[in-house]
Amino acid sequence: MSEEIRAEMVANVWKVVATAGDTVAEGDTLVILESMKMEIPVITESDGVIAQLAVTEGDVVQEGDLIAVIE
Question: Per residue in 11-57, pLDDT tens?
Fold first, then answer.
């Protein structure tokens, strides 16, 4: 079963912490978003492997945009 991680708000992708193929555990940070000068970590809610990382540093994400897929 895969988990899609999506943006919860409009924000800039400030830093990408993980890469596709990385093994992650629940609570690990994947990317850090920046909105209104606040840093918002995007974390995974389950253990797995990053099958897809759909953003790069400098991207602008809209609410609901795909950030990553964890399998």
Answer: 999 999 999 999 999 999 999 999 999 999 999 999 999 999 999 99
CA distance 50 to 20: 5
DSSP annotation of 61: E
Question: What's the sign of the alpha-carbon dihedral 43, 45, 49, 52?
Answer: negative
pTM of the model as a whole: 0.91
Q: Which residues contact 18 (CB under 8 A, 6 or more apart)?
A: 24, 28, 29, 30, 31, 50, 53, 68
**CA–CA distances in Å: residue 44 to residues 18, 22, 36, 37, 67:** 11, 12, 23, 23, 11
Question: Which amino acid does the sequence have at 3?
Answer: E
